[in-house]
Amino acid sequence: MAMKLYGFWRSLASFRVRIALNLKGVAYEETVVDLLAGQQFADGYKGVNPQSVVPALDDGTGAPLFQSLAILEYLDETHPEPPLLPKAPRARARVRGLGMITACDVHPLIVPRIRNYLGNELKLDEPTRLEWIRHWFNEGSRAIESHLANEKDTGRYCHGDQVTMADVCIVSHAAGAKIFECDPAPFPTLHRIVGECFKLDAFARAHPLKQPGAQAAH
């Protein structure tokens, strides 16, 4: 039985989970929850994820799983090959830290519910909201670039020459920065690694613009 992923083409968190499922060779079917149409607030979906966000993953063994990093670690524990986390404790901490810069520090500040609050409640106009979004993407990119460019553990990918959770996360970060037209030039190491990742089918196939609904929106 295929797992059921609740996601949306433009959701960077859903993108992360799609990459991991592809890397692990796990069959899944994606149910689209249109964030732009507000489907995440429908009672039916709130029963899946009370926070009204995507992704959620139903593997048929219990309540749907939620939060992309938790889902990635669950997949790594239940489908250990290829591993998304190194074995050594310090290496695991570095990989998690790189992933958390984007998934925990940057991404939560630019999601639709934050953008809507900035506009509807704080009355910020669209140019000001875009300035906010680009600021946080660039702050995250600067931090990631510094780690990747200056630390000896960086290799072909974020940590050595094997794909890890860090790569899954920075690829989603770069995709979001591109959507909002952030300049990639100041972050060459980050974008070199992103380019390496997209040579792999698991990443390329998961790209937001290759998902149902994306072409209709462009």
Fold blueprint:
Elements: E1 3-7, H1 12-24, E2 28-32, H2 43-46, E3 56-58, E4 65-66, H3 68-78, H4 89-106, H5 112-120, H6 126-150, H7 165-179, H8 188-197, H9 201-204, H10 214-217
Parallel strand pairs: 1-2
Antiparallel strand pairs: 1-3, 3-4
Helix pairs in contact: 1-3, 1-7, 4-6, 4-7, 6-7, 7-8
Task: Characterise the protein shown here.
The chain has 218 residues and is α+β, with helices and mostly antiparallel strands. It has 2 domains: 3-82 and 207-217, Glutaredoxin (3-Layer(aba) Sandwich), CATH 3.40.30; 89-203, Glutathione S-transferase Yfyf (Class Pi), Chain A, domain 2 (Up-down Bundle), CATH 1.20.1050. It is 52% helix and 7% strand. The protein has helices at residues 12-24, 43-46, 68-78, 89-106, 112-120, 126-150, 165-179, 188-197, 201-204, 214-217; strands spanning 3-7, 28-32, 56-58, 65-66. The protein has a 4-stranded mixed sheet, covered by helices on one side. Strand 3 (56-58) and strand 4 form a beta hairpin. Helix 4 runs antiparallel to helix 6. The protein starts with a strand and ends with a helix. The relative contact order is 0.15. The model has no long low-confidence stretch (mean pLDDT 95).
